[in-house]
Amino acid sequence: MTFIHFAIILPLIAAFLIAIIHKYVKGIHLGWFVLPIPFIIVSYLFTLIPTIRNGDTLLLNLNFMPRIGMNYDVYIDGLGLLFAILISGIGTLVVLYSIGYLSQKEKLLNFYIYLLLFMTAMLGVVLLDNVLMLYLFWELTSISSFLLIAFWTTKERSTYGAQKSMLITMFGGFMMLGGFLLLSNLTGTFSIREMISASDQVTGIGAGTLAVVLVLLGAFTKSAQFPFYVWLPDAMEAPTPVSAYLHSATMVKAGLYLVARFTPVFMLSTTWVWTILIVGLITLCWASFNAFIKDDLKAVLAFSTVSQLGLIMSLLGISGLAVVRGANEQIFTVAVVAAVFHIINHATFKGALFMVTGIIDHQTGTRSIKKLGGLMTIMPITFTMALVTSLSMAGIPPFNGFLSKEMFLEAMFEISNANFSALASVGFLFPLLAIVGSIFTFLYSAKIVMQIFLGEETKETPKEPKEASALLLISPAILSLLVVVFGLFPNLLTKSIIDPAAMSIINAVEPLNTKISHWHGFNSPALWATIVIIVVGAALYYFRDTWIFIYKYIKDKFTINYLYDQGLHYITIYSNRFTRMLMTGFLRTYMVYIFGFLVILGFVTMLRTGLNLDFSNLAPIGIQDMILVGVILIALGIIMITKSRMVSIIMLGAVGFSMALFFVFFRAPDLALTQLAIETVTTTLFLVCFYHLPKQSKLPEKRKFKLTNFIVAVGVGAVSILIGLSAFSNRLFESISQYHIDHVYDLAAGKNMVNVILVDFRGYDTVFETLVFGIAGIGIYVLMRLTINNRKDDKNEERAEESRL
Amino acid sequence: MNLFLNIVFIIAIVGMAIAMGIASYRIIRGPTLHDKIVALDAFGVMLMATIGIFSVLLDTSYLIVVIMLIGMLGAVGTIAMAKFLEKGWVIDIDRDSDE
Q: Where is it found, in Gene Ontology cellular component terms (chain B) (predicted)?
């Protein structure tokens, strides 16, 4: 148990301590006590950078459930460390921000416990090497996210959003578990590193492709890729620190982490790379297209997050594609580095943007773009941060978004030139989609800056706007500063973080020595693409009134949200209907189900295994047996066709007594005795019931003849007969009764073998059968007494009422 | 057991069977309930006789208990049904009860 093992569960332990602190310390904002925890973790993680930088990795084993291979093995390489630093670093800033954002009146204890739970879960997802543990923490992120989205439980939209995100991410999580189990079946291990070394066993077979699809479902639902992005805009009902932390910087990147982590495992599978690349690009375009029209600032940012995640996803797809198709190493490296770099950049500028949104919401009381305007002079610091981060998001130099966007476009152009046989004719689509997506990114980034901070001042805001307190401003300020620093000096990051992370994604051994430069020369198509994006974007923004009408053609009915809502609605309706159709409430229907299934099962089994009937062992049949069988058959026939209940009862008695006679003929005197006595009692009881039946149903009722019942009854009879015959024909072993015959006297001192078996050889059965009788007797007594007592109570009540009157 | 006895027993069983058949006819067809009860009682007695003959044929003495049980059940059953016809119930309910 090293500190890093401890660090993962440190937030969880802190969650317990926080509850105690909350009980005894009032007056101080609870967030101050939470703040040191992510700070300790991030400080510790920074000390690991030199190790990782040298190309080393850390593997720290700790057995948790070794029998099933579920171990708490921490594996730290560039990728894991990058994500862990993002999680704990932004976590620190978000906690700091939430101190200013949430007032003491909120349920702070709940908030911080959920947040710490989430932090543990996220650290576990990115740092653990075992897929089962990864899944465990993965689900923990879903659960804590669910709790955080529904933080204001009284709001209907919150619970709706929480339910939606829960359903979608849980669905993906289960699929992912299936993929992991398939993978571990194929490779024989639960450890991701060992899966990577056994990756040649995964590709090229059907189960491997299925595993690809299942793992990708997990990643796509979590990372809000098309068409599973629908939960993310609805998750914006969460408090803004939560949106900033979970739904922009960390949790939605868990899917990206998963894809990056499993790229070496699946790299040789074409399904994997094409799915990622295409889904990523579609997500990028569709979400950025939708983001422009939204009025709610957080909705814009949510769609923006979705589109940026699509961008990173498509870059990860190219990383794999290069290996599959054997393209040159250069694209490969560029795409991986771009993906890693954009993960960092997106976390910084999107986190800051969400916090800025929160500040605007906090200071003006609204997030609606239509109500806001002209905040530049009122909130200059917020404006500066929003400007820097929006420009970075749009991909304008000199901020960090420009650099990664540039690399993204470069990779897309390379892919279109690479001339793969399958996509020689459609290769131009990739850069085209990328450019279209980037134009819309530019558009909504411009919209955020222009329509909120510029233009004329609005007086409609619920609160009088003024600049926020330092506590709120400090976290987005740090992030904005990082945006600028990473933009101006990108090579600060390359050696320490980006290269190790990129190396672990592509499983490379040699150092990459990446150099990120601002200037690629005039030959670079990415430069011209950027110029096109800016010019076209600016023109489109300026003339937006002329083309905005195209959004009207997207009716609500064509959105995936509509599909989701209708799906949920109809699933409820049809499952209700199905249940009502099956569960009629009539016992006879259920009997038909049970016996019908028995008949089908019996016949299917017989058809599959074949019947083996053997009549060589039969005893001779005497005249008396035939007569008795005749009597029983006649009695049964009368029971079935008679219209009188009395006749049925008598005939049932006749069957019972005939059985007793059978026992006589087959030399079973004990059975005959018991059968006679029991049959008499049973018939009497039937007559008692008959006597007490209400008058109206005494009338002889014509039985409804039902063909189904008849068929099922005949089927059950046939199955029982056939099973009996085949069981008789296939005796595998000698009966053990010879032992009883031999030892009934010398072991048990009795001559009546039946009785000796009942009370001596197998006395336990007798004990519990006696118990059954006792319970039945007590049950009957209780039933009758309870009825009587109730009647008395009723009478007492009636009397009491009468006396009151 | 010699052939003669065997034939006698078989004739006896056949005779019993015929008698039981006739009694069954009365049980099913008896014009009144009283006829049916008397026929049932006779049927029980004949059943005892049949089992007796069978126990000789099967060469066993264990079935005597069965014969006695049928005798008892037949007697109790006939009395119970007679009481039912007479009073309308079989077991007397507590006399203090007002029901």
A: plasma membrane
